[in-house]
Amino acid sequence: MNSSAKASPWWTPSVHADRRPFLIGRNAIQAALRGFFAREDFIEVDTAALQVSPGNEAHLHAFATEALTTDGQKAPFYLHTSPEFACKKLLAAGEERISCFAHVYRNRERGPLHHPEFTMLEWYRAGESYESLMMDCVRILALAAETSKTEKLAYRGGESDPFAGPERVSVAEAFERHAGIDLLASVAADGSTDRDHLAAEMRRVGMRVAEDDGWADLFSRVLVEKIEPHLGFGRITILDEYPVSEAALARPSMRDRRVAERFELYACGVELANGFGELTNAAEQRRRFEIEMAEKARVYGETYPLDEDFLAALSLMPEASGIALGFDRLVMLATGASRIDQVLWAPVAEYGR
Description:
Elements: H1 13-39, E1 43-44, E2 50-51, E3 63-68, E4 74-79, H2 84-93, E5 97-105, E6 117-126, H3 130-147, E7 153-155, E8 158-161, E9 167-170, H4 171-179, H5 195-204, H6 215-227, E10 234-235, E11 237-240, E12 262-267, E13 270-277, H7 282-300, H8 308-313, E14 320-326, H9 327-335
Parallel strand pairs: 1-5, 8-10, 9-11
Antiparallel strand pairs: 2-4, 3-4, 5-6, 6-14, 7-8, 11-12, 12-13, 13-14
Helix pairs in contact: 1-3, 1-9, 4-6, 5-6
């Protein structure tokens, strides 16, 4: 075959026939998870995709649009990168257990595990600790495997047993174990970070450091290159206690104020979910968003507005835990798909076609 030939479109009958078992599996897993949340007394909610702010994380990229008022005035809007702000407003309104299957949109993202439009499963528990979310995750991954009639989650030759007890490891422990770096030595008691100290540690273990790398850039490089390739093989990994500077929406840990109540869930080296003990201090949340947007301006030359309604709602929001799970990725691992577009009923058109 000519290497320049384009693959057949997803709607070609033969291509669809190859994808269809994954898609039927997707529907079955979604139905099973809806049953799980119903049994746990969750209310399923539906949030608007158009928001005044798409989120305020430095390295998330949104799709921008604009609305026209009845008199023709323009108002900027964004497609949300997560239903998080709307869900937290619902907690402020009085809901206590909510779940949401939301189509979300992220620009600059396309690959085997990334798609410009994908499905995020989020759920929130008012008045409960973020450890309860960890137990939810264990049950959900087991349920997805049971529904798919498989004993293993699998991706690119790696396997993870969703029925085995999960490994729970802190980020600091993972840095020491897999990179030989004392991460928290570069984090002060108030959560501020020492870029030069972390850079020196990375050079000591033979890792690349660029002059314009900030502490967050260095942290991410170690995580991606040295840590993530070891997570979630054999059994699920819960990577817990991120430094507070890497957890803009999470509250600090009562055990160690240098770290936050944030964890990520991994299986087969794939990040599946990101959970928090939610921050409810509006002033602190504003400060963190402003830091994130300053970093976004430095790196990308743009910023996103803050959602003032969201910040106002935090004053009414109860203590809660919340989590976002990449539903399409979970389907991939449970059904054996190798690319995210195999588990999407109608993928977004390829750019340039």
